[in-house]
Amino acid sequence: ISRRKPLFATAAAALVLLVVAAISMSVLYVRSEANLARALEAEKIAQREANTAERTSNFLVELFRNSNPEITRGETITARAIMDEGAKRIETELSGEPVMQARLMNTIAEVYQRLGLNEPAHDLAARSLEIRRQHLPPDHMDIAAGTHLLARILQGQGKSAEAQSRFIAAVALYEAHGDKGVARVIDVLGNLGWMYGEMGQLRQADSILY
Questions:
Q1: 63 phi/psi in degrees, rounded to 5
Q2: What would the pLDDT profile of 22-33 be if each residue is shown by its tens digit?
Q3: Nearest to residue 4, comparing CAs of 15, 12, 19?
């Protein structure tokens, strides 16, 4: 070594470079594998959401198709009757698919709420939220959406205190998603501010809306 210092110095430098290169390649490999796994998972989630949306659409189309006069032989079918039938079918036909069941329950609960039928809306929305909490991560967007719907239903029932706590819970759930939840946070705060206005609590409404 003492006689050939330049040679051994070169060899040592080459060895160090090889080690550094090997470590760098290993890090890049791990990162690429992680990125690939995330991409595949995102693709699976997107596909699952697309399938769920399609099935939801098909279920509702089929539900309303049953109100066709050719099928009902001229009998008048109300929107309430259609929703009641849908709620029954969801309970029985989708008992083995809780996530899909909860989504359709939430959809029909929202229709009930828009029809001013707050009692059946509350029962179905509460049931949907319960199922979602059992089968989804605690910070899932669907849980936030279900909490927001239940708050609006409670507001319609005149249960302001309960509605307020649900609105605030929905805000917290959406805020946990950062930029993805901003638009929905604004929506929830708008409803909460409106409720405060209806209650005559104008200062609270003003602080939220502006």
A1: -60, -45
A2: 887 887 777 777
A3: 12
Q: Which of 109, 78, 116 is nearest to 91 (CA)?
A: 109
- Distance (Å, rounded) from C-alpha 20 to C-alpha 103? 51
Whole-structure pTM value: 0.69
Number of H helices, E strands in the chain: 9, 0
State the Cα–Cα distance between residues 125 and 53, nearest whole angstrom.
Answer: 18
Reading phi first (left if > 0) and then psi (alpha if -120 to 50, else beta), residue 159 is in beta
Question: CB count, 10 Å around CB of 82?
Answer: 17
Which residue do the tokens 């098909």 mark?
A: 58
Taking CA 28 as the corner, what is the angle to CA 22 and CA 32, rounded to the nearest 5 degrees? 145
CA angle 187-145-78, nearest 5°?
95
